Every structure is written in structure tokens, then in C-alpha cells.
Amino acid sequence: MDRIRIVGGQRLNGTIPISGAKNATLPLMIASLLTDQPLVLENVPRLADVIQLQRILGNHGVDVMINGKRPGDDPNAGRTITLSARTIVDTTAPYELVSKMRASFWVVAPLLARMGEAKVSLPGGCAIGTRPVDLLIMALEKLGAEIEIDAGYVIARARNGLRGGEIVFPKVTVGGTHTALMAAVLAKGTTVIDNAAREPEVTDVADCLNKMGAKIAGAGTSRIVVEGVARLNGARHSVLPDRIETGTYAMAVAMTGGDVLLQNTRPDLLQSALDVLEQTGVTVTPTNEGIRVARNGAGISAVDVTTQPFPGFPTDLQAQFMALMTKAKGTSRITETIFENRFMHVQELSRLGARIKLSGDTATIEGVERLKGAPVMATDLRASVSLVIAGLAAEGETMVNRVYHLDRGFEKLEEKLAACGAAIERISE
Ligand code: EPZ
What we know:
The protein has 429 residues and is of the alpha/beta class. The chain has two domains: 200 residues, Alpha-beta prism (UDP-n-acetylglucosamine1-carboxyvinyl-transferase, Chain); 215 residues, UDP-n-acetylglucosamine1-carboxyvinyl-transferase, Chain. It has 14 helices and 24 strands. It is globular, with a radius of gyration of 22 Å. The model has no long low-confidence stretch (mean pLDDT 95). Ligand EPZ binds next to α1, α5, α6 and α12.
């Protein structure tokens, strides 16, 4: 299994190209199930999760074509993939596939909307918490689906098609909002989604669905209105930049010091995180090309953070920010309100010399002068990358094990960091 070896202490200077967003790519690929015409997605990142979803969609009959590269093409440009769901050959998503990637549960809505039936395995728990799907099921029922749960599978039926309805989410859910949208676009009549997730990835999916002929208004606000249409067409859509990748590298620069241009990304996608970074002493400058992040000389100030749905501070940057706070001057508190168990990085950061106390949903981090490299591993994607950030500033060698978590969500991580001067390499075995 691959490992990543880091020797800490180098500042980061240069340019890091930001890839297309994983968490938009996955639902966009799933949206291809809604039409018998080709959906062309540009700026698709090369990630293990994308390959896994190709397999899952292939099982339903989706033909996936990946465009090649010609000599002279920008090696960092994302891929273009074409997904054609001309015929759905199977409306079942089996446990073996869904258990490998939770987001694949989201196929339930487009399969049900287009075929009138779907049988999808419940995804089960995962490293960051129990992560139920009750609200996704509630949304489908509001649109007229009959749902049965049998032997670990959700069996959804809508023999006469789905019909518009009113969905009020008691808590903000990204997956619930994707599910409601993908079901409502082909339902008869009007659907209103209240307390909808406002995450940029939801807006990106809604934009793509509108290009496919859907009638969605209000995406990006907490009230989305969908007028159902009889069928959707193919379309061409470019995936928006990955705000979590952007924030991760911004925090890496904050940690090591230096000056890096994060290219092909936008500050409005992560304003709350950039505001927090500025409070820690980092200079953030929006440019025509992206976002410049610099920290020269000054130390890191301690700042308290509470994770919130968008536009608040994202849970997917919580672990990375905690890594940064381990070297801050003073004590900070990080409160996690989205997932109940997303603190697995605490133990591993402590192995590098961090001083962190956990109490319920809050971590108290007492900044230390020095971290010291050690072998570490993590159980999810964002926790793993927080260890990379800590390793970049730790004395000596940090070996990050279980690199497959990083490969799920960060394209060319070690290449991008090494190009800015980090001493980081992948060790393949
Ligand atoms: C998405 O997960 C992201 N995944 C997550 O990113 C992200 O952390 C999360 O949104 C929050 O921003 C993808 O986009 C593929 P939720 P999702 O439904 O949709 C509870 C990463 O590292 N809930 O918004 O599954 C749930 O338990 C990943 O890239 C219910 O109670 O998250 C959680 O506490 C990890 N019932 C809260 O809502 C439900 O039916 C928000 O979850 C659904 C969710």
C-alpha cells in the first residue's frame, strides 16, 4: 500500500492549480441517469471516487467515455468525460458497490424519477458518524414514492411517476437536497424545497440540470422551486473549482509560511474560511487567476471556529484548520456541529506533539512551538490531509499511511505540494 513521506520545515512558494470539485463531480455524474442523451462534463478531477462511481454507473448501463489528452495539452487541466445513459439496464445498486462510496446512494432519485423504481443498498455508517439517509427517504416520499426497507435495501417505487410536493428539511442536508432536486426535475407539477442546502456544489448541479432542460429556480438560497418537465436532454457542463482543495492548500501555506497562488478557483466559494485564515495572520488576495495566500514572518494567531452549513465554515475543512491551530500562539476552540464523530485526526495529531483536549463536540487546542514527525494514519479523507499539513511543519520525517483516503479526494497532492518546495514523496510498495 502506498505511503506519503514528508520532511517538514520547507516554506511553500509557487502556484497550485485547483481541480474540479469532487463533491460536485459525483452528483453531476449521477445526474446523467436522468436522460437518454449524453452528458459531457469538463474539468473532472482524476480521483479514486470518480473511478469508483464510473463502475457503479456502469452497472446501471451508463456508458462512460474519457477523452484522451493530446501532446501539448495542459497536464493539469481536468478531464472531459461523456456519460450516456441511453438505456438503464439495472435499477439495483448492490451493497458491494454502495458500501464503498456513500454518495452512490444518491442514484436512488434519478433511477426512481426516470424508471419508476429503484433498489439501492443502505450505505451503512462511516468513519465520521452514523450518517443516516432518513431525510433523503422523506424527500422521495413527499414526491409520491412508496418506500420499503428490506434486507438492507431501500426499495422505492412510483408506478405512475413522481408528483411535485413540498419538502421541508428539518436540518440542512447536501445529499437530501441533491436527492430532492433530482427527483423533482422529472416529477409532474411544482416542488418546493425549504431549508435547502446552499452549498456551491448544489448550485452547480442545479445549473447543469437547467442546461439539461430542467426548470429550477432559487438554487443557492434556502428555498428552491422546481417545475417538473417530461424529459431532460444532454448538456455540456464544466465542474466548479474544489473549494475544499482550495482551503486545504491555503491552510498548508498558512502552516508553513510562504506565498502561493491557488489557480483557477474563486474566493466566494470559501469566504468564511478565508476570513478565518486572515484572522490567523495570513494575507489573502483575490486575483484574476485565483487566490494568492501568503504568510511571511508573523506567527499564527489562535482563532475559534464552529462548523456550519454553507456559507459558514465547512466541516470538510475542520481537520485541516485544527492542524494549523496546533502551532498557533495561544489556545483555540473548534466546534463540530455537522457530524458527531469527526475528530479522528485528534489522536494522530497528538502523535506529532499537538496538545488537544476533546469534550463533546468541541476540541480545545493549545498551540505548541514545535511538532515532531512520526508515522501516522487516518480513517477519512479530510483527516488524512490534516496530517499532511501538520507533517509539512513538523521537524523531521512524517510518514502518512493509508494514502488511499487521500487519493479519493485530492488530485496529485504530492506533486502539487512538491512543485511549491515541499519535501514530500509517495512511496509505492
Ligand atoms: C456531503 O455529505 C459531502 N459529501 C460531505 O463531504 C460533507 O462533509 C457534507 O455534505 C456536509 O457538507 C459529498 O458531497 C459527496 P449531509 P452528505 O447530508 O450529503 C445528517 C468529504 O469529505 N443527515 O449534508 O452525506 C448527517 O448525518 C465528505 O468530501 C441526517 O440526519 O452530508 C449530518 O449530520 C464527507 N439524515 C448532516 O445531516 C439524512 O437523511 C449533514 O449531512 C441525511 C443527513
